[in-house]
Design brief:
This protein is α+β, with helices and mostly antiparallel strands and about 425 residues long. The chain has a single domain, classed as Cytochrome P450 (Cytochrome p450, Orthogonal Bundle). It contains 18 helices and 13 strands. The strands form four sheets. The chain has a six-stranded mixed β-sheet with strand order 1-2-3-9-6-4. A hairpin with a 2-residue loop joins β7 and β8. It is globular. The termini are far apart. About 40% of the residues are buried. It binds protoporphyrin IX containing FE. The site of protoporphyrin IX containing FE has 25 residues, from α14 and α18.
């Protein structure tokens, strides 16, 4: 279940609509924007040879396809495995599959609607706005912890702990458990990499089993002694007389922890890099709440943390002259859409003062990121506090991206501020 894969080979692709880029080639994943620029200039709807499916790189198509009901994140609600040639589940990743079974990201309506409605209340803007003081306090404490050093890796010292602690606290897990949660989460998300090995699968499965055992014990505690937290809310919330099962609560808690930190960490890292490389004065970028908001949105547009999401065609259909069969996969290139020159003036320029700002970094349609209001507030508070406390922040070495193409984030971000 981990990655959505094209199983039936696609043939008869016109040469002028086919393109090649190896996801694990450092030249590509250090700067995928060169490849995107070629696609925009030639054919933004193209067959990506290495993935073996069609992809869309322009803003208009990506925005439309994310909302298009002919496509879904799941296919087994409308087809059997045999019909579309999906392999049987692998027994050695059964625990990982169980964590995914009730994941919002793998469900389609009506199951998706029911689960999302039950979880959504905790994430609406009004609710997460209340977290601003806690975020400022946490950002300050984390900076206090490293300010005395000469230089740090900002990813591990600052970007990673903040969202992990916040989401753990929201769910109702002790902040001290954040490093362990991150460890499980990091090992699980390797399942989405291109070309996963057997060892990786075994390790991700073990992490899933340990994560679920931990959550089961906390769920048992909350059933005995309810608290004011999301876990208790999910265990007790009712929708049309129905409650969530323990498996659904565990799947959701794991998804929130995984989705809730990885992308935020990477946006913080990529955003700080974009600002420092732009040569713009950080003071002007965070001068007012409105400008802080615009700066964060430009960080999200300019160097998105998640570059490729996929959908199944739920029926035989056609897009942009491309015939698709039920079960075919399409790739929606969020990072490329954000740099579409037909949508943005000077698309490749980092410009927090632009008036045509927009991005698809949080997706769109029914799977639109439930954590977007939280992520935005986290990024606004964390980044403005960082530049306020360390106004002389600068890069200590050229940052490099991780070898995980679609999680576009930095391996390290070494900075100085003397
Ligand atoms: C900058 C940070 C973030 C980015 C860029 C991001 C991006 C995304 C994207 C693109 C999707 C849609 C995927 C698709 O359509 O296939 C998504 C879904 C989701 N995100 Fe986020 N996310 C971020 C932060 C968060 C946070 C902080 C949380 C939770 C605390 C979160 C929880 C979720 C969940 C639960 C879904 C699934 C929603 C559904 O399927 O209905 N995300 N996110």
């Amino acid at each position: 279940m981990a990655a959505i894969i094209q199983v039936k080979p696609i043939t008869d692709v016109p040469a002028d609509r086919s393109a090649s880029a190896a996801p694990r080639d450092p030249v590509f994943f250090q700067n995928p924007y060169a490849f995107y620029a070629e696609r925009h200039a030639t054919s933004p709807a193209f067959f990506w040879e290495e993935y073996g499916h069609w992809c869309f790189a322009d803003f208009k198509s990506v925005s439309a396809l994310l909302r298009d009901k002919r496509f879904g994140r799941e296919i087994l609600h409308v087809a059997s495995r045999e019909e579309i040639g999906l392999p049987q589940p692998k027994p050695h990743v059964a625990d990982f599959d169980l964590t995914e079974k009730f994941s919002l990201l793998n469900l389609e309506p009506p199951a998706h609607t029911r689960l999302r409605t039950l979880v959504n209340r905790a994430f609406v803007s009004r609710q997460v706005e209340q977290l601003r003081p806690r975020l400022r306090q946490l950002a300050n404490e984390i900076i206090d912890g490293f300010e005395g050093e000469d230089s740090v890796d900002l990813i591990t010292a600052f970007a990673a702990p903040l969202p992990a602690i916040i989401i753990a606290e929201m769910i109702g897990l002790p902040a001290e458990s954040a490093p362990q949660l991150l460890n499980w989460s990091n090992r699980m998300v390797t399942m989405y990499m291109f070309g996963v090995t057997h060892e990786t699968e075994l390790d991700a499965n073990q992490a899933s089993a340990d994560f679920m055992a931990y959550l089961r014990s906390i769920i048992a505690e909350r059933r005995k002694a309810p608290r004011e937290d999301l876990l208790t809310h999910m265990l007790t919330a009712e929708q049309g007389g129905e409650r969530l099962s323990d498996e659904e609560v565990m799947s959701t808690a794991i998804l929130l922890l995984n989705a809730g930190h990885e992308a935020t960490v990477h946006t913080t890292g990529n955003g700080v890099k974009s600002i420092l490389e732009s040569g713009l004065d950080p003071k002007t970028l965070f001068s007012t709440p409105e400008q802080t908001e615009a700066t964060v949105e430009e960080c999200l547009r300019f160097d998105a943390p998640l570059h490729l999401f996929t959908r199944y065609a739920l029926m035989d259909t056609e897009v942009d002259g491309i015939a698709l069969r039920k079960g075919d996969v399409v790739g929606l290139m969020l990072g490329a859409a954000n740099r579409d020159p037909s949508r943005f003036a000077n698309a490749d320029r980092f410009d927090p003062f632009r008036t045509d700002g927009a991005n698809v970094s949080f997706g769109a349609g029914i799977h639109f990121c439930i954590g977007a209001p939280l992520a935005r507030i986290e990024l606004q508070e964390a980044m403005s506090m960082l530049f306020e406390r360390l106004p002389k922040l600068r890069l200590a070495e050229t940052p490099r991206y991780n070898d995980v193409y679609h999680f576009h984030g930095l391996e390290t971000l070494k900075v100085r501020w003397d």
